[in-house]
Amino acid sequence: MQKPAARPRSPHFSSGPCAKRPGYDVSQLDLRALGRSHRSALGKELLGKACSETARILGLPADYRVGIVPASDTGAVEMALWSLLGARGVDVLAWETFGLTWVNDIVNQLRLPDVRVFKAPYGELPDLSQVDAARDIVFTWNGTTSGVRVPHADWIADDRQGLTICDATSAAFSMDLPWHKLDVATFSWQKALGGEGAHGMLVLSPRAVQRLESYAPPWPLPKIFRMTSAGKLMEGIFVGDTINTPSMLCVADYLDALAWADSQGGVPGLAARSQASLKAVEDFVATHDWMHFLAQDEATRSCTSVCLTLDLPAEQVRRLAQLLEAEGVAYDIGAYKDAPPGLRIWCGATVEPDDVRALMAWIGWAYGHIKS
């Protein structure tokens, strides 16, 4: 088969760290804070701006708080689980690797006595109607390793008594999230906006704050998990007074990503870019019967972490991904190690839809090359 004439302008389709925004230039970052204390007036100003601009661009309710916390999305989720759970029974949903990680933490590490686990295999969702509004609910909005997302939030009661704790790391900034349904949401800089790693974002509703100020878990909490002092929320965390020392270079990078997101029209513009990339994949799959979405239901297809299976043995799928990398066409698109063999193409907002269209033609070429 002849190689396609057009190449993706960027071969970066990794699902984390993800592609930098189009036109990214590290020399254009505001580096005034490098070498300065994060406690300085300048450091606090920039960290505070990272929180306030995140809230503005995401369209968070005015009474929600957003703060920068250690250890990426994982740190933010763990902070929420260890600080908030135990006051009520817990329903936890899992259908891919990271959801199963939170199951393990809740069941085997926190060892909570009243936990119900609802699981589904890769490619499917558990029955969302099983959750109980009187209990806390823990779930991922978008299964990063399975390409399966919840299609809506109608299953979350507005008059719920428990808290909803949502790992939204591969959904934030590329999907329209119903914040009034989410009491806690977490994400990281290196996902949908292509920022740098190691920093997490934690969003709290007033209901989550009320839980923090009225409930003290019976287990000890390390410093990086503590959000209260003398029974009151540590408000500084949510205006840039971080628990530990952040990278001011990463902060500059994140502020650059936020400015770009704003220039694209915020979440609606970013989501449209992501949907256009998904459409490019859907159009290709519709005309090639050897490629399939891992998501079994079209309504649950992720528009960011798009997971695909191919009618090839696992070893040949790996060879196909290696061939595309050797050609400089696509980096890091093999399926996650725990997922079924296949491809995972990041289609978040920082990826150009035209690059995804070009990539699909190259996948077709590589498939024919491997088959022959």
Question: Short description, anyone?
Answer:
The protein is built from 8 helices and 14 strands.
Q: Which short descriptors sum up this protein?
A:
single chain, seven-stranded mixed β-sheet, 15% strand, 14 strands, 8 helices, alpha/beta, 372 residues, three-stranded antiparallel β-sheet
User: What is the CA–CA distance across the termini?
Assistant: 9 Å
The residue fraction in helices comes out at 25-40%
Parts with pLDDT < 50 across at least 5 consecutive residues:
none
Form type: globular
Strand line-up of the largest beta sheet: 1-9-8-7-4-2-3
Oligomer: single chain
Number of strands: 14
Q: Strand fraction band?
A: 15-25%
Describe the structure.
- This protein is α/β, with parallel strands linked by helices and 372 residues long.
- Helix content is 33%, strand content 15%.
- The strands form four sheets. It has a seven-stranded mixed beta sheet with strand order 1-9-8-7-4-2-3, sandwiched between helices. A three-stranded antiparallel beta sheet has the order 12-13-14, covered by helices on one side.
- A hairpin with a 4-residue loop joins strand 5 and strand 6.
- Helix 1 packs parallel to helix 5.
- The longest helix has 21 residues.
- The protein is globular.
- 48% of the residues are buried.
- The model has no long low-confidence stretch (mean pLDDT 97).
